[in-house]
Write a structure and sequence with these properties.
single chain, 297 residues, alpha/beta, Rossmann fold, N-(1-d-carboxylethyl)-l-norvaline Dehydrogenase, domain 2, 2 domains, eight-stranded mixed β-sheet, two-stranded antiparallel ribbon, 11 helices, binds acetoacetyl-coenzyme A
Length: 297
């Protein structure tokens, strides 16, 4: 089956990024949201990102102003599920909540053509649990993208025990056509990246709680000592503390190991509404986003 038309569910940070890379790779893309205002917000983000790529220019891996126009022309927003009917693959990137995701899949299962592949961008929810909501379990996979989607090269392609080899390989090839590097993984909570990344981020918080170093020093140490692009606290704020906190629950529930459990400080910051960069405060204060100030807790 040839993939030509892509549907994306959700136009938040991940959904808009996924829609952008699909349109950049030449696919026609329809993005579904519950309200027009969320589409408008997501499309503003896409436009901003494409402006950056156009400023860079094709010689440095960017795009021409003409290509920017063509990419935007391939993107369509909708609030009507019927517009997804002829999509060959539908990638879901809505809120990280099992029941909401299952409801969404169940509501489009009868609308989208039956040969289409359903993919979830979930980072921690069991793909197998999600596929119980549709009548095409063999055409259901995980396609896990990374933030910021237009820049991060990796896509985890997640196979469940019910996924057919044909649907899996089609999704794997599709990820390549997006210009990404796909890796094969199975439906074990956290897949490859979060299985290794989450304990590392949580350990950074524990190290801070134990007085090993300040937030800035731990960040500098991991950046300069290991060559990581961001230190753990900068990355935690970037990913979102609420998101990380949610992931700890799912992972701890699956493995029952302390390394996946939330440290007390993370829980308290989430309770206080300090979600990181998106809420203006996390391990750093972003009152001036160009000069984040590390907190002392
Ligand atoms: N679109 C297009 N271009 C963008 C962009 C975007 N959204 N964001 C930044 N850029 C461009 C900048 O304009 C800049 O371009 P020039 O070089 O032409 O000036 C370039 O990208 C580099 O950006 P910055 O100088 O601002 O910053 P940087 O060099 O630190 O790179 C980064 C930014 C790629 C995000 C890098 O810091 C990085 O790789 N950080 C780690 C991110 C990471 O680990 N993500 C995974 C999170 S985990 C996850 O997502 C999964 C999960 O399940 C939780």
């Amino acid at each position: 089956m040839e993939i030509k038309k892509v549907g994306v569910l959700g136009c938040g940070l991940m959904g808009s990024g996924i829609a952008q890379v699909c349109a950049t790779a030449g696919f026609d893309v329809t993005v579904l949201e519950v309200e027009q205002k969320y589409l408008d917000k997501g499309f503003v983000g896409i436009e901003k990102s494409l402006v950056k790529f156009a400023e860079r220019g094709p010689e440095k891996g960017g795009i021409t102003p003409q290509q920017k126009g063509e990419i935007l022309a391939r993107l369509k927003g909708t609030t009507n599920k019927a517009d997804l009917a002829d999509c060959d693959i539908v990638i879901e990137a809505i809120i990280e909540n099992v029941e909401d995701k299952k409801k969404m899949y169940a509501s489009i299962d009868g609308v989208v053509k039956k040969e289409a592949i359903f993919a979830s961008n979930t980072s921690s929810i069991s793909v197998t649990e999600l596929l119980t909501s549709v009548k095409r379990p063999e055409r259901f996979i995980g396609l896990h993208f990374f933030n910021p989607v237009p820049l991060m090269k990796l896509v985890e392609v997640v196979k469940t025990i019910a996924t057919s080899a044909e649907a899996y390989e089609a999704a794997y090839e599709f990820a390549k056509r997006l210009g990404k590097v796909p890796v094969r993984t199975s439906d074990k909570t956290g897949f490859i990246v979060n299985r290794l990344l989450v304990p590392y981020l949580l350990d950074a918080i524990r190290a801070y709680e134990e007085g090993v170093g300040s937030i800035e020093d731990i960040d500098s140490a991991m950046k300069l000592g290991c060559g990581y692009p961001m230190g753990p606290f900068t990355l935690l704020d970037f990913v979102g503390l609420d998101t990380t906190y949610y992931i700890t629950h799912v992972m701890y529930d699956e493995f029952k190991e302390r390394r996946f459990a939330s440290p007390p400080l993370l829980k308290r910051m989430v309770m206080a509404g300090w979600y990181g960069r998106k809420s203006g405060r996390g391990f750093y204060d972003y009152a001036d986003p160009a000069k984040p100030v590390a907190g002392k807790f």
